[in-house]
Design brief:
The protein is an alpha/beta fold. The chain contains ten helices and ten strands.
Length: 272
């Protein structure tokens, strides 16, 4: 195994923090070394310094894509923090159904990982609107920094074990068995989600319209305080009045630095 020096780790972690907002603490040295060693060996690099120089000089973007795929943690599952989805169904959707006059519902799943979160939202929306759904534009924007997880999300294939705790009618209506071990989301749900690679650290968000709901859960735990504050302020500027922001239960907003108003644990709202 190729060892990483403290200087090399600092060089690499500073690059990742400055460009992608992810804060790798010193205790992550062993984790980073383990995840990247095969990349170094496969490309015949003798040190992490050689690898870093390759990453920053590669004009194709493939080197940094591999780096991000290796160092990001994409642990998620269906109905994670289920109270959020219940609140979305029982409070947020009824409010939006009444208040959004042009029937253009704009929802963003930021840091969508392998697609469980936006897929759950799409199923809830389909069930909530029923026959009326055809009158609405309910497409969900789902973004992540990792191309690897986006490829998985687009396929919409999930193990039988991973969907075991979903409602029975969802499994019947929204999934098709591929084999004993896997099922695929039906096309009417997959087609409701637009997957895009996106870096939340981009200085300018490219969206033409604001969102009624933003889910960004268990993403900001990897950011430092300043990065979190700056990102939340950008979210606020791209939230419609009366719109909602959902974050992870292990995360919180500094109420003195955010204009969002607290609603419930990890749920905030932009006052209308």
């Amino acid at each position: 195994m190729i060892a990483i020096t403290e200087k090399e780790f600092r060089q690499l972690s500073d690059f990742i923090r400055d460009h992608y907002g992810i804060h790798l603490k010193q205790e992550k040295m062993t984790l980073v070394t383990g995840r990247l060693n095969n990349v170094l060996l496969q490309n015949n690099f003798k040190s992490f310094s050689d690898y870093f120089n390759y990453v920053v000089s590669d004009k194709t973007g493939e080197a940094v894509k591999t780096l991000i795929d290796k160092i990001t943690t994409n642990h998620t599952f269906f109905m994670r923090e289920a109270s959020h989805f219940e609140f979305f169904k029982s409070h947020v959707l009824p409010y939006l159904a009444h208040s959004v006059k042009d029937k253009d519902l704009r929802i963003w799943s930021a840091g969508c990982s392998t697609g469980e979160e936006p897929s759950t939202l799409a199923m809830i929306i389909d069930e909530f609107f029923g026959p009326e759904k055809k009158l609405w534009d309910t497409k969900i924007l789902a973004t992540d920094i990792s191309s690897k997880v986006l490829d998985v999300a687009r396929k919409g294939i999930y193990s039988t074990e991973s969907i075991a705790n979903l409602p029975v009618n969802w499994k019947l209506n929204y999934f098709q068995k591929i084999d004993r071990d896997n099922s695929v989301l039906v096309s009417k749900i997959r087609n409701e989600i637009i997957y895009r690679k996106f870096n939340l650290m981009d200085p300018v968000f490219p969206f033409k319209k604001k969102f009624h709901v933003i889910f960004c859960r268990n993403v900001m735990i990897y950011f430092n305080a300043q990065t979190r504050t700056e990102l939340v302020n950008k979210f606020y500027n791209f939230t419609e009045p009366g719109g909602y922001l959902f974050i992870g239960h292990s995360e919180s907003l500094n109420r003195g630095e955010s204009k969002y108003k607290y609603v419930l644990p990890a749920v905030y709202r932009k006052e209308s």
